[in-house]
Amino acid sequence: MTTVVDDELWSAIGDPVRRRLLDLLLAEGVGTPTSLSDHLPISRQAVTKHLGVLDRAGLVHATPAGRERRYEVDEAQLARAVRQLNEVGRTWDARLNRIKRLAEEIQRRKNRD
């Protein structure tokens, strides 16, 4: 089975601040830009922008809570990302094993000559 890699999803996860936001949300269950910015060396506005990227990728969902929005991780979308990562890992493992076998064959031929 081949999994199609979602570039928007991986672009969102590729940023270390966004990965940290996901970690915080997974640990806390829910967070607001204000509460999350307390754990990061960036402003609430910057946190809001990063959460917007995660939201567009489907990794988090926001619900209004008074004047703020409460964010939580979409675990189904995160599980999809993990499946994609595992598939990419298996593909690269197979490629690297093939390269290793080719290199070993070249080395054996050199040793015979």
What's the SSE blueprint?
Blueprint: H1 7-13, H2 16-28, H3 33-37, H4 44-56, E1 60-65, E2 68-73, H5 75-112
Antiparallel strand pairs: 1-2
Helix pairs in contact: 1-4
Description of the molecule:
- The protein has 113 residues and is mostly helical.
- Helix content is 67%, strand content 11%.
- It is built from five helices and two strands; from the N terminus they run ααααββα.
- It has helices spanning 7-13, 16-28, 33-37, 44-56, 75-112; strands at 60-65, 68-73.
- A two-stranded antiparallel sheet has the order 1-2.
- Helix 1 (7-13) packs antiparallel against helix 4.
- The chain is elongated.
Approximate shape: elongated
> How many distinct helices?
5
Strand content: 5-15%
Secondary-structure-based class equals mainly alpha
Detail the poorly predicted runs. none
Provide the spatial order of strands within the biggest beta sheet: 1-2
Total strands: the figure is 2
What does the main sheet amount to? 2 strands, antiparallel
Order of helices and strands: HHHHEEH
Mean pLDDT: 91
Computed CA radius of gyration, to the nearest angstrom: 21 Å
Helical fraction equals: 55-70%
Task: Measure the end-to-end span.
Answer: 42 Å
Q: What brief labels describe this structure?
A:
2 strands; 113 residues; mainly alpha; two-stranded antiparallel ribbon; 5 helices
